[in-house]
Amino acid sequence: LDSLRSHELKQRVAPTQSILESAQKKLKLANERLADYKLQSGLTFPDKVNNLSTNLEQLRRQRAETIALEQQARRKGEKLSLDLGVTSQQAAEAFLLKSDQIFQQNLKDNSEATTALQVLLGKFGPNHPKVLKELKRQESAQAALSQRAQFLLEKPADPELLVRLSLNTETSGRDPLFQNLVTSQSEQKGLAAQIIALNGQINIQEKKLEKLAQSQPRLDNLKRDEQIAEAVFASTLAKLDLGRGDVFSAYPRIQIAVEPTIPTEPSAPQKS
After folding, report:
1. Nearest CA to 182 among 94, 91, 99, 98?
2. Which range, 1-10, 150-159, 183-192, is most confident?
3. In the chain, at which end, N or C, are there fewer CB atoms within 10 A of the end residue's CB?
4. φ, ψ of residue 158 in degrees (nearest 5)
5. Which range has highest mean pLDDT (65-69, 72-76, 116-120, 149-153)?
6. Which helix (H) or strand (E) holds 116?
7. What are phi and psi of 261, to 5 degrees?
């Protein structure tokens, strides 16, 4: 009986074992294909697409807020520029010249020479030695102003611009307005640069998301193939285990032998 049972078990297990090996190879191949495609497509993490979409939405929201702030700073600068009668660039140049001590000293010399010249012209003629002296001093101060301004601004200085900006000691009351104008311009430039940077980041994220979205259907197919291979392997393994466990189905463990009985009388034909 043991020999018969062993032979029966081999006959049962052999086909299932072959099927199991085939299913195992298919499962391994499906796992490898899925892993390789995840690595190739960048879909290594399950929530990568969702995380990328969330980050993209945050960047777009940040860009919208930054655009609103940039527009607000620009409107503020335009109003200050209109009130002062100067551009933000001219206001920035004015502050640059005001912060330079050499330029301010030249400006002071020019102001003193101009005042003294006006007083002397009220007393003497244009060819008077004192008038000529102050005139020369004024010309020297103006030349120094132009040279210093050109050095600081890196371009030829416009004398009319200096007068229009009122760059002298009597214009301190306009300093806060000039400062606000320059600040608004700086804020606007900084916000504009942030918008450009955000646009670049959004463009990169959109391209990544588009690429991942194109890869997602292929990934889903590979996942489905892997799940099918896993189900087939598990089912085959269960059948193999079931066949091995039922070794006594064909040849039970206990068999009863009963002595045959012989009838004492014939059952047919019956006599009438």
Report:
1. 91
2. 183-192
3. C
4. -95, 115
5. 65-69
6. helix 101-121
7. -110, 145
**Both structure tokens of 49:** 């697409």
pLDDT tens figures, 184-197 = 888 888 999 999 99
| CA-based nearest residue to 233, from 13, 32, 19 | 19
Which parts of 154-174 fold into alpha helices (H)? 159-164
Please give the distance of CA 270 from its chain centroid, rounded to a whole number.
104
Yes or no: say if 94 and 244 are a contact pair by the CB < 8 Å rule: no
Tell me if 86 sits within 8 A of 164, measured CB to CB: yes
**183-192 CB contacts, 8 Å cutoff, 24+ apart:** 184/73, 184/74, 184/76, 184/77, 184/80, 184/88, 185/77, 185/88, 185/89, 185/91, 185/92, 187/69, 187/73, 188/70, 188/73, 188/74, 188/77, 191/66, 191/69, 191/70, 191/73, 192/70
The four Cα atoms 138, 144, 145, 149 give a dihedral, to 10 degrees, of 170
Dist. CA 11–CA 247, nearest whole Å: 11
Residues sharing a CB contact under 8 Å with residue 218, sequence separation 6 or more, in sequence order? 37, 41
114 neighbors 72 (Cβ within 8 angstroms): no
List the structure tokens of 149: 């301004």
CA–CA separation, 135 and 147 (whole Å): 18
Cα gap 118→266, rounded to integer Å: 166
Lookup: tokens for 251: 């040849």
Kindly state the tokens that stand for 15: 């086909």
